[in-house]
Structures are given as C-alpha cells and as structure tokens.
Amino acid sequence: MEGRGHGGRVAVFVDGANLYHSIKSYHKGVLDYSRLLQAAVGDRKLLRATFYIVEKQETDEAQGTPSARPFVYNLNKFGYKVRSKPLQVHETTTPQGERAVSHKGDWDVGIVVDMMRLASHADTYVLVSGDGDYVEAVEYLQSEKGLRVEVISAAQCTSQALLDACDSHTDLAEIPDLFRRSPKQAVSDQRSAIS
Question: Whole-model pTM?
Fold first, then answer.
C-alpha cells in the first residue's frame, strides 16, 4: 500500500475480532500491529487509528485468566486509540431443561458510527476487516461523503460484496514483514530442520 499517490488525511478502523479470527484461521506467526498501521497509512497523514476489541470479563488473574491490558497498552504505544467493550454472555434454559450459553460481542455498529462522525475530516478510510456487514456504510461514505475506502483483510475470508464495494483491497499476506514467527514456531522449525 505504501507509495501510492493517494495523499491526504487517512483514518484507520481495525475490527479486532474479525482480524483475530482471520489470523487464527489463515496465518502463522505474530502480527506486527505497528507494521499494520504503517502499511495502512503509507505516506499519508494519519488522522486517527482506532482498534476495536471485545474483552472477556476479567476474572481473578490468580486463577490464570490473562488480562487484555498488556495488549491494549501495546496498541496505544503503536498509535492506536483502543475502544473496548465486554463480551456479553447470555445463559438460557432450553425446553428440555438443558443450559445453553451464547456469546455476543462485536463493534460493527460502533465502527460505522465512528466512520460517520469522522467523515468530514478525512479523505481516505482504511477498514481492516473482511466483514460484508460494512458494505452499505462503505457505499454511503463513497457516494455521499466523497471518501476513498480501502480494505485490508485476509483475502480468503473477505466478503465478495466488500471487495466489490471498496476502492482497493490489500491482502494481509501481501504486506511485507507483517508477521513475525512466534518463539514456539522458531523452536518447532529448528526441530523439523534437525530431524
């Protein structure tokens, strides 16, 4: 994405849950969030980068439940404003008397609202998500607000309607140096090389 001739002010919106599931399903290694932001902005002026996360309710860390705080702290260091909300857990009982648990947590509406709020201040939006739920918002922002909307996502799990609507798409796999090998992978690769 860098080096393209699209100047102006850019705002970046990262759908953290969508990004997480894409990485988990299709990519190995640890994503470099600083590098992701550099690739999204390129040589343009960053207006704002917002990273949206849904957090499990923190329980006692003594029980071994990790906190999202270090992750949020690092995102802030890299230049992201982090918006977080708790994962909602709903428990119901089926007619057969069995306990059913469902989870709800996404930022789709919140991201769209933030996009609308910033529309008069930016020239380009970069949406890091492959979710087709954003198509109508993308089309509105392009036709009614004159914004360029770019998408960064894992191509394998990106809605075709979103690909058709956006002005450009960058596959996560095409961004140089975006993924670092995790320490576990390095050890595994060394073992494979020795065998």
Answer: 0.81
